[in-house]
Amino acid sequence: MRRCSLGIDVGSVSTNIVLLEEGGGVVSKLYLRTAGRPIAAVVKGLTMLRTQVEDSVEVASCGTTGSGRQLAAVITGADVIKNEITAHATASCHMEPQVRTILEIGGQDSKIIFLRDGAVTDFAMNTVCAAGTGSFLDRQAARLGIPVEELGSYALRAKNPVRIAGRCAVFAESDMICKQQAGHSAEDIVAGLCEALVRNYIANLARSRVIEGPVMFQGGVAANSGIAAAFEKALGLRLVIPQFYDVMGAYGAALLATEHMAQACTRTQFRGFDDLRTDCKARSFTCDGCSNQCEVVRIFSGSEPVAHWGDRCGKWGAKIKISAEGSPR
């Protein structure tokens, strides 16, 4: 029976699960739509994973990341809870030790991470502007009547990419309609859209910071060859697109869990595939303990409160019984 590490990345658009064997080889990976139901997505993913591996593996460590990392940790009994920046940086350095810049574009947000000698030195995230995300590409592909998987090939066939205003999703869509009405080809419009998204990304995230190579491109949008080509054109650098570009957060969470358990020398807190907390429900309230007026999320398993987060001072978060390193005790 192989000893493996489980990594779970719960985001607003996708829930990704990776099972790594010792040494970092991927035993199995899953990319699922969260569809606004993170609990159901995690349970569904782990049920599918168990069917794939049957009884051939033993989960020796478990890590969670993403916007729903705390919730996933409650469901599974994770050993490590880490933010997306740490998880993506860990996975990237494992695959390309010399990486200096990470470009990540997901369904609802995007991020840029700067590294030196394997350590994060700076980062920026965009969770506001839809024009720099995968969901914007999905919407425009549907409007153009093009399968989103084919956007990249359309962009690469362009003869004369048009200029699209990419700093705002509303303006970009209006500009695309004008270009269509002017008779420009779908290929030229899609190429212009890819270049606009890249300009928006660089302007909003990189700003005045220098992007140095090696540069790794990851996230679901890394599958779009048109976006990759637009980045290479804008930066004058070749991109490294890792094999598991779409699940790098989960990959990093699994690596971090392995590292933590090696240092902790204790048994995993993973509840097992048969003992997941599937009855979790979330409720929120405003804490009036100080002027911060934090919105605190409380997770119930049945009628029992099992976790809190969202408070800045830690008054409620301390009740989760999670150490400062993010490990349930």
Task: Provide a brief overview of the structure.
Helix content is 35%, strand content 25%.
Characterise the protein shown here.
By secondary structure, the chain is of the alpha/beta class. The protein folds into two domains: 118 residues, ATPase, nucleotide binding domain (Nucleotidyltransferase, domain 5); 145 residues, Nucleotidyltransferase, domain 5. Helix content is 35%, strand content 25%. It contains nine helices and 13 strands. Strands 3-2-1-4-5 form a five-stranded mixed sheet, with helices on both faces. It has a five-stranded mixed sheet with strand order 8-7-6-9-10, with helices on both faces. Strand 9, helix 8 and strand 10 form a beta-alpha-beta unit.
